[in-house]
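We emphasize that the prediction below concerns an isolated chain of 202 residues; any contacts that depend on oligomerization or on bound cofactors are therefore not represented. The input was used exactly as deposited, without trimming of termini.
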Amino acid sequence: MNENLRIFFLGDSFVQGIGDPEYRGWAGRVLAETGTGMTAFNLGVRRNTSDDVLRRCWTEIETRIAPDADHRLVLSFGSNDAVEQDGVVRVDPDRCLANLATILDGARHRAIAPLIVGPPPVVDAGETHLRRTTTLAERMAALCRTHDVPFIATTTTLAEDPTWRAEALAGDGAHPGSGGYRRLADIVLVGGWHEWIAQPRR
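Result of the prediction step, given as a token string:
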């Protein structure tokens, strides 16, 4: 692993770790098991959709780029895109996928290696939202395959996870506590995180 490693975690409230009493979320737990000699930035923002993430992506990242560093982008969004407001979803699935493709193209142009973590489920949003999120995640995974970018699926596993569900329902209905974020971190760690981190700098 390059000792001058900079990792940008970009996305929504699940990336930010809302609800975790330890203030680490899944990103902090993943980092704790990655090693030392890196600089990490949590750029998660509550209620962000893919539109929001695309709009602020490179403005936020480019101010944190360092000469000769190995830059990595961990991207996760989609749960808010699938939320229905006034009878329509906040972001059409096709536009969400286009936003993802645009960010991946931008990362390739900047020689920043991306990894995509699929959208977690929002427990109290119901089965319809879960179906939309699951379908969106499947389409995101397919897009990542065409771009040769690793994708880690989370939606279905977490929707069936008793700790994630119990903690979310005990809280605001969407965000888990420390146990749920530990579960999400484990999914990321076994889903290819270490292999991705170990890849040589582009």
